[in-house]
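Appendix B, example 12.
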Amino acid sequence: MEIKNRFFNDPGVSFFLFGPRGTGKSTWLKMQFKEALYIDLLSPDLFRLYSARPERLREIIEGNPDKKIVIIDEIQKVPVILDIIHQLIEEKKEIRFILTGSSSRKLKRTGIDLLAGRAILKTLHPFIASELGDIFNIENAMQYGLIPLIVNSKKPVESLKAYVSLYLSEEIKMEGLVRNIGDFSRFLEVISFSNASIINSSEIARECQVGRKAVEGYLSVLNDLMVAHTLQVFTKKAKKHLISHPKFYFFDTGVFKALRPSGTLDRPHEIEGSALETLVLQNLIAWNAYSENRNQIYFWRTRAGIEVDFIIYGPDGIWAIEVKQSKDIRLKNLKGLISFKEDYPEAHCIILYRGYEKLKKGNILCIPCELFLKSLVPGRTIKF
């Protein structure tokens, strides 16, 4: 397996590193900290040992005084161990703890406050286009996504199916995050039709034949596992009447494609459009996370149905970004950006499309989507 450089940087202090399975947390840590004391709680033996006697961690650390960095993988498996870590951070200032996890849900449920701020929270995401550079292929990314585990697979289709089956179903069942795995599996299929769309919990509940509260709980599980994103409406100094419901996306376009059933009645252009939006968002979210979350990401939609896919708002300015699967730009494609620009004249308006040329239509810049994604480098502002 080829190891690719990531934009994620060591913060230099104790930290939690959260991210979905397969995003490369363990690989990055083992490359970065070759001499660290490493404890993998996915190991059944270690899981049993530390579940029964979490104080064993103190004994291990005191028995290895030369180890100044301690990595504990999948910390949510044994949340009680955080009490011991809390004490050790206070007592042994020279030791750094790096704690990885694919979910903070179990930690929250046990009432643990993630070490009361004594370890900062970081996230690792699927690859972004600028990490892959010249080997980034937008067609492959839209079909298979950018999860490192899948990107490095010789059989991405089979690997995606296994990922969805074993992780999104079996892992959730094993962790006891939902009571009825059958209802949850049906929910995953139904919610795939809402990818890149406004969330309508009542309609989803009817299709899943479960209560609305159950749907809201399932959405919360996906967010806590970091396999979904919900965007809120941009309402700052709003001049138009806006909707209030959030928008839903899976964290990776390959996972969306694997979950989304398709048949003869489906319009491929709609599925591909949703996949392209997801691909852009997952790159924006990772770019922002590795840029110390300088910005906030929203969408914008009026009650009249005029919409802009993404609004990037932060200290460096406002960007309004519309994503289109088409290779040509038509006047109707610009409607949302024109309306947003009327309310926010200081905004930089961009439309991303599948063509090959940079164009300018009025005060709206039209950029090939692949070019835009490759230009997203953490620490740098959006600039063309």
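The longest strand covers residues 307-314. The mean pLDDT is 90.
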